[in-house]
Structure formats: C-alpha cells, structure tokens
Amino acid sequence: MRNIGVAILLCLGVASVSQASTQIAGISNSNSQIKDCSAFTEFQSEPVGSECFVRFENGIIRGHFKISEYVTKNGQTNKGLEVVGTGLIFENTIARNLSYRAAAQLCWKKGLKLPTGYPKYRNGEWDYPNRDSDFALAENHGLREAFGTKMKYRFFWSSSGVDPDRVNSFVYSGNDGDLYYFYNGHAWWHYSTAAICVSGSHN
Questions:
Q1: So what's the pLDDT on residue 71?
Q2: Rounded-to-integer distance, Cα 199 and Cα 192, Å
Q3: Helix (H) or strand (E) segment spanning residue 135
Q4: Are 69 and 97 in contact (CB under 8 A)?
Q5: What share of the chain is helix, strand, coil (3-state, %, to 5)?
Q6: Reported pTM
Q7: pLDDT for 19
C-alpha cells in the first residue's frame, strides 16, 4: 500500500450501514420520550442515566447512547458515553495533540484502552477479529453525532496497526468517520491527533 504524503494512505471508508437494517431491536421510532442527541449542546456532559438517539434523515433510529458509569482497573468510577447494545463506553473527555505512544500510555494509565480501528474489509484478516472494530461499530451508531462538534478536526488514534511492524496505525476521523492511517512516529501530525479511551468490548 502506498503512503500518500506522510500519513494518509486511504480513505478507507467505514462501511455504510443500511438504514433499514439499523433499527434498534425493542425501540420504537415513535412515541419515545428520549430526545435526539442533536438537542443537546454537549450530551457527554449530561448527568448519569441521560439517553439520546441519533437518527437518519428519514427518522429511523441509527444509534442509542447513554451516559453511564464504569470502573477502571484502578478502582476509580468514571462517567462515559455508552453505545447502547455494543458493550462499549467511550470516555467523555478528549485528549488532544498526542503521539500514538502518548495516547496509548494515557489510556493504559487510566485502566482503559485505545479503541480498535481497522476498516470493515479487514474483518477476519491478518490478526483482526472477524467483526467490526470499535470505531467502525461506533461510527455506524452515530458516535460523532452523539459527541456533537467535539470530535471535529481531529484524528483519533486506534490500537490497530496497519502492518505487523506497527509503523503505521489506523486513525478515526472526527470529520467524516472514515478510517485513515498515520505514521506513528511523525511529529508533524500531532497537532491534529487525539485520543479517546474506551471501556469494555463487543462480541
């Protein structure tokens, strides 16, 4: 694969999901008391237990989010943004201007991890599990919409290396939700890179 410029090779495109297939089981599209995520300025700052929906333009529910608590390996209870039904809780704060190494260490120190972030077409290839990565799954549910504008203009490090030597890692774009890759050691990109840690995992 070619490395264009310094870091970005491909617009790998998180796989688009069919609107018809993303209706969440057990949730009606009508008569719901749960607000749309767009009704909040910063939903991730809402009290624990708050919920919101991300919808397609035709009103069908794309994703269900909830402010939940999780316990780190250090025994600390934190608040995060849960992608309901996936087992994933994203930290409700974003750390900016970090290298890959600094991002990974930050999450580790908190007892969390960087989200996986390989593109869908790599499911089951190399050493990737045969399922969507954390970022691909969360994007399909509307993660960027739930966070509002907080993720814009940033590329979020994932724990997924592009190659076995891990010279490059996949990053999740806060602008368009696509997965690109960056060279781990190149400092020029650090002004736009960021970290958002995650708790839990999905099957």
A1: 86
A2: 23
A3: helix 134-141
A4: no
A5: 20, 30, 55
A6: 0.81
A7: 39
